[in-house]
Amino acid sequence: MSKRIGLYPGTFDPLTLGHVDIIERAVKLVDELVIGVAINRDKGPLFTLDERTKMVADEMSKIEKKSGVAIRVVPFESLLIHFAQEVKAEIIVRGLRAVSDFEYEFQMVGMNQALNDDIETVFLMADARYQAIASRLVKEIARLGGDVKNFVPVAVEKALRAKFAKS
Question: 95: Cβ–Cβ under 8 A, 6 or more apart, which residues?
């Protein structure tokens, strides 16, 4: 029996506790989880690809030890379904916070199924504590000197402070 590989894609700019929550749920469903860090030049990320990949990888080592599930952090700049095929994922994991997330994700699933109906998309609801957290809002709070410790891992909080201290 082959191992079940899942893919959780995102820009992770920055990684939030909501992302971590979804990852902790996703490892219960798969034998291996690939975290795809999207380049996505359209979003104009605050952190470089290398910075985002390192932040995610550093947090994943903790989850990997706790869960016993192999986690790989891989940057990508391709069509999601092509990347899923490349990493041999059978499942794409997507996190949902609100109804507005579902509308967008519903369209994405339809398009992805049209491209490859062998790869399933699984939606996981974020814990209620994390449903309001959005990377965009976390960056705005940090930029304006607010406290983000309840929204991001400690290392990410430090990276945000350092990034905005330079500006």
Answer: 8, 18, 19, 21, 22, 101, 123, 124, 125, 126
Give the number of residues written for the chain: 167
One of 25, 54, 72, 97 is an active-site residue; which one? Answer: 97
CATH number of the domain that 74 lies in? Answer: 3.40.50.620
pTM metric for this prediction: 0.93
Catalytic (active site) residue 97: yes
Residue 136's domain spans which residues?
5-165
Residue tagged active-site, from 4, 43, 65, 82: 43
Burial class (CB in 10 A: 0-12, 13-18, 19+), 164: middle
pLDDT tens-digit profile of 132-156?
899 999 999 999 999 999 999 999 9
Query: Number of structural domains, the chain?
Result: 1
Q: Is 3 annotated as catalytic?
A: no
Q: What residue has token string 């069509």?
A: 79
CA 105, distance to chain mean position in Å, is: 14
**Model pLDDT for residues 76-105, shown as the tens digit of each residue:** 999 999 999 999 999 999 998 766 677 788
Q: Is 43 a catalytic residue?
A: yes
Could you confirm whether 82 is annotated as catalytic? no
